[in-house]
Specification:
The structure is a single chain. The protein is mainly α. Helices cover about 80% and strands about 0% of the residues. Helix 4 packs antiparallel against helix 5. The chain is globular, with a radius of gyration of 18 Å. The structure holds protoporphyrin IX containing FE.
Length: about 200
Amino acid sequence: MDAHFIYRRLHSLTGIVPVGLFLIYHLYIQLYLHSGAEVYNEVVNSFYDSPLALWVLALIVYIPLIFHSVYGAMITFEAQAQPNYHYFAHLLYWLQRLSGIGVLFFIIAHVWNAQLGPLMADTWGTHFEHLAEGFADPESGLVTKTVYVLGVLGATFHFANGINTFSITWGIALTPRSQLRMRVISVITFLVLTVSSFYALAAIW
Ligand code: HEM
């Protein structure tokens, strides 16, 4: 087994476990925006009460995400036209790469906006107020909202379409029938995650 094969499999696996599972958990937490500032801040802050929180974040989220992103960016730059793909599969192939790069920029902006900025300004903990004020800002609010909508859309598409490509990478869906089933699962995942995230954002729109 060569190193490229192992890295490729690790890249594929980290997209689902743990990064994909974290994405689902993270988007679920955002539904608490509808419960108001007090509940939302408590739900988010309670995670950080644990002395293991930073270790969990580093080992389960940041390290796998950095690996997936760096290797994903390398795969993106090696990408080339796939003459044996039909039009729709080709479109998804390029959208998977484009959304990966978009999500990378979004995650950097999001971590800066939601974590590092408030930490440096010593306002960390009032997450609801910080998000709501950012969205309502008369000068930059529209840009912030647009970045969040595109970032969420990119992430839900990338993960949902990734479920389908993951099943191909691992040889899980080999027959046309099972491939159709994976595509249906992928479309349903995309719709559920996107609708739920936009509903969450509507609370502070
Ligand atoms: C929210 C964060 C992310 C999640 C949940 C995620 C998830 C996934 C999943 C499940 C796959 C399918 C794996 C496969 O085809 O075997 C995948 C593929 C891919 N990801 Fe990500 N990913 C994320 C972020 C990124 C970032 C930041 C990049 C790069 C800049 C990236 C680049 C790629 C590429 C290029 C593929 C296609 C691999 C291929 O077709 O062989 N991903 N991702």
